Give the backbone structure.
Amino acid sequence: MSVSPTLSSPVFSAEELAEVARLKAKYPEPKAAIMPVLWMAQHKWGWLSEDVMRYVGEVMDLPYAHVLGVASFYTMYFKKPMGRHHVQVCTNVSCMLKGGTELYHHVQQRLGIGNNEATADGKFSLEEVECMGACGGAPMIAINETFHENVSSAAVDRLLDSCS
């Protein structure tokens, strides 16, 4: 995931526009493709700025208010720049009982940031999350889209050290 803190004029490539068309064609109602298109936009620009959401609305032929509503409802969409390595720590019941809350505090201290904040160098961001569907492997974290189960503070330190 690339981070682009300033964005003047978002534009999908021809290949990306073809993918948008393919996604829209999958559904009886093309607006149903909004979530994967927003995910594409976030992957391309690192976060969903107002300009990006307006552009997605144009591409999808949807009002900005609809795009904003979807992006605001789901926590997977970032409405501000996040780190290149987005660390999510589950603190829901199973993970909490297996040390997830302590793990979250460890990562907070290690990175020197709070929930939904990014380090000054833009390398890391941190998010405390609810269930990520890996209760049997608690406690778990995700770095970007890679899940890590049964992690300890030492294992998290090694994972963070391996991020370039």
Remarks:
- Residues 85-162 form a domain with the Glutaredoxin fold (CATH 3.40.30.10).
